[in-house]
Design a protein that fits this description.
- By secondary structure, this protein is an alpha/beta fold.
- It starts with 5 loop residues before the first strand and ends with a strand.
- It binds NADP nicotinamide-adenine-dinucleotide phosphate.
- Belongs to the short-chain dehydrogenases/reductases (SDR) family.
Length: about 250
């Protein structure tokens, strides 16, 4: 019998990551639900997957710390086998702010908090997947944001810039590892109903802004998950370095 594929989804206890974990499990993947501190939410995602006949485990790790990323990959390797798919999704948002009011602490927090984990997790995933390291290939999908295209003026230029870095990472890494059997793609969600907007100081931000979108509604995490799944799957076997914008026409 063919080995079940293994997917690591960072920040999968809530929001887009949780919806993506459920979808991959539905398609037969063994899913690693990574989270930072909300073990209750992560365990709920795992319990729901198992209740529906899927396979998943929750692993706590701050994916912005290399030692924890290394331990995360070691645990996956010993408990689930080598990974086939990495979804870089964990991210943070802070209060809306004019550019001139940003300070060093906040800028550093956002830039490191939204960029480091994508680099670190990709590094360890490549060491597992790459044909140069004896691997069978694989797929990486980065969750960026429509903010990388809009720049998010008067709200979070620091967050938008961190997502711009993810777009550039996608372009460069896709080219660097294409001949090693690894595809790297990216989704750029717009206004999606998750907890993240509360962290930005405005829980109802999607409802306030949705009428400005061509489709005049916010998006659901499940709609983003479908695009992530497609890019990661063999249905997208000739796609690398590509972007799917899920922003209601923005
Ligand atoms: P969310 O609901 O706030 O969930 C964030 C997730 O990331 C949680 O599972 C959290 O774990 C985890 N996390 C944060 N920092 C982490 C770290 N250092 N290590 C491990 N896990 C960490 O977020 P979301 O809205 O689903 O966003 C997911 C991704 O989509 C982010 O990259 C975000 O920038 C992007 N995005 C979101 C929107 C939107 O409108 N929501 C739009 C565009 C892009 P805990 O539960 O343990 O805290």
């Amino acid at each position: 019998m063919a080995k079940k594929k293994v997917a690591l989804i960072t920040g999968a206890s809530r929001g887009i990551g949780a919806a993506t974990a459920r979808l991959f499990a539905k398609h037969g993947y063994i899913v690693c639900v990574n989270y930072l501190s909300n073990n209750c939410a992560a365990n709920n995602v795992v319990d729901e997957i198992i209740l529906n006949g899927g396979s998943a485990i929750a692993i706590q790790a701050d994916v912005n710390k290399e030692s924890e990323v290394q331990a995360l990959f070691d645990t996956i390797s010993s408990q689930l086998g080598s990974i086939d798919v990495l979804i870089n999704n964990a991210g943070i948002l802070r209060a809306q702010s004019r550019f001139v009011d940003l300070n060093e602490e906040r800028i550093t927090q956002i830039l490191t908090g939204n960029i480091l984990s994508y680099f670190l997790c990709s590094k360890y995933a490549i060491q597992t997947m790459s044909s140069d390291f004896g691997g069978n290939g694989g797929s990486i999908v980065n969750v960026s944001s429509a903010a990388s295209r809009t720049g998010a003026p008067n709200e979070y230029i620091d967050y938008a810039a961190s997502k711009g870095a993810i777009d550039t990472l996608t372009i460069g890494l896709a080219k660097e590892v294409a001949a090693q059997g690894i595809r790297v793609n990216c989704v750029r969600p717009g206004l999606i109903y998750t907890d993240m907007h509360a962290d930005g100081g405005e829980p109802n931000r999607v409802d306030r802004l949705k009428s400005k979108l061509p489709m005049q509604r916010g998006g659901e995490p499940e709609e983003v998950a479908e695009a992530i799944y497609w890019l990661a799957s063999n249905k997208a076997s000739y796609a690398t370095g590509n972007f799917i914008d899920l922003a209601g026409g923005l």
